[in-house]
Amino acid sequence: MITSTPAFLRRVGSPIGRLEITSDGTAITGLAIERQGHLPFEELAENSNELLDRAAQQLTEYFAGSRKDFDLPISLTGTEFQQSVWSQLNDIGFGEVASYGELGIATGRATAGRAVGGAVGANPIPIIVPCHRVLASNSRITGYSGGEGIPTKVWLLAHEGITHKV
Questions:
Q1: β-strands 134-135, 8-12: how paired?
Q2: pLDDT of residue 1
Q3: Exposure of 53 in the CB half-sphere (CA atoms within 13 A)
Q4: What gap in Å lies between CA 106 and CA 88, rounded to an integer?
Q5: In this model, does residue 2 exceed pLDDT 80?
Q6: Directed axis angle between helix 113-121 and helix 80-89, to 10°?
Q7: How large is the average pLDDT for residues 11-20?
Q8: Does the CA dihedral 149-153-154-159 come out positive or negative?
Q9: Per-residue pLDDT at 161 exceeds 90
Q10: Which of 21, 70, 110, 114 has the least CB density, counted as fewest CB within 10 Å?
């Protein structure tokens, strides 16, 4: 969840809508996908830096199909449990998936499916931290908090060639 005015801000177009990337000057701190034509900080002027320029370039390459992973410093603020789930997300490679149950097991909380889902949905840096690569154990999409929701996740999964059910 975005709660404070970012030090640095850059917007970039994408096939899933405009993206708004934020940074504290040292790391990427957030990425928002346009929802119903709006972005969280749309009232603020862009204030980019070299890191956000790199992030914009890497996102453009990802959407063009020439980049499969990101090489950017990130800073994720959340609970210890959220941090453990987000760390697991970073281990899911391009075109791969994990289930909510697998993430629960990997974080030592095998029966915490709802909590895992909540942590995945609270990921402040989607795409770069690939929460879209998490599906139910039967390969169904159970939701997506970025952009326009499930249609955005469907696009990202199809872009990576990931088989799924809606």
A1: unpaired
A2: 46
A3: 4
A4: 7
A5: no
A6: 80
A7: 98
A8: positive
A9: yes
A10: 114
Q: Give the tokens for residue 159.
A: 């872009």
Q: If you search the block for the tokens 């862009």, which residue do you land on? A: 46
Q: Is 149 helix (H, G, I), strand (E, B) or coil?
A: coil
Q: What type of residue sits at position 110?
A: A
pLDDT value at position 122? 96
Q: How far apart are CA 72 and CA 151, in angstroms?
A: 26
Name residue 30's beta-bridge partners: 22
Of residues 111, 129, 31, 115, the one with CA closest to residue 81: 115
Q: Report the DSSP pairing between strands 19-23 and 28-33.
A: antiparallel
Q: How confident is the model at residue 3 (pLDDT cuts 50, 70, 90)?
A: low
**Whole-prediction pTM:** 0.94
User: What are the angstrom distances between the C-alpha of 41 and each of 7, 23, 31, 81?
Assistant: 12, 13, 11, 27
Residues 53, 59: Cα–Cα separation, whole Å = 10
The set of catalytic residues is: 131
Nearest CA to 91 out of 55, 134, 45, 50 is that of 134
Angle value at C-alpha 95, between 127 and 133, nearest 5 degrees = 45
